[in-house]
Amino acid sequence: MKNKVTAGLFGILLGGFGAHKFYLGNVGLGIVYLLFCWTGIPEIIGLIEGIIILGMSDQEFNQKYNPGYMPPAPQYYPPNYPPAPPQQ
Predict the structure, then answer these.
(1) How much is the pTM?
(2) For 16-66, how does the pLDDT look when each residue is reduced to its tens digit (9 = 90+)?
(3) DSSP annotation of 3
(4) What is the pLDDT of residue 47?
């Protein structure tokens, strides 16, 4: 499962080399970023994409980059849980 914070930081810090693209499974674009890293353009795009990734909600990120991920169901506890000890 891919992590949103990791992908965002890869984009901001190593986006010029396409690290975030490789991490997110888009190898083709990662190679393009590597080929053009000497121009400086991938650094700017990587910075912007890293900020966009960090600004996504967790649900939006998981829908896009973790297909099939099902978040854990919320726990329900009755209002009197845990039960109070019996009074004597």
Answers:
(1) 0.77
(2) 999 999 999 999 999 999 999 999 999 999 999 999 999 999 999 999 999
(3) -
(4) 97
Residue keyed to tokens 């674009």: 29
| Cα angle: 49, vertex 59, 8; to 5 degrees | 25
CA dihedral 7, 59, 63, 69 (to 10 degrees): 90
Per-position DSSP letters for 45-80, written without gaps between them: HHHHHHHHHHHS-HHHHHHHHSTT--PPPPP---TT
Q: Tokens in use for 3?
A: 């992590």
List CB contacts of 88: < 8 A, sequence separation 6 or more.
Answer: none
Quickly tell me which residue has 């190593």 as its tokens.
14
User: Do the Cβ atoms of 60 and 51 come closer than 8 Å?
Assistant: no
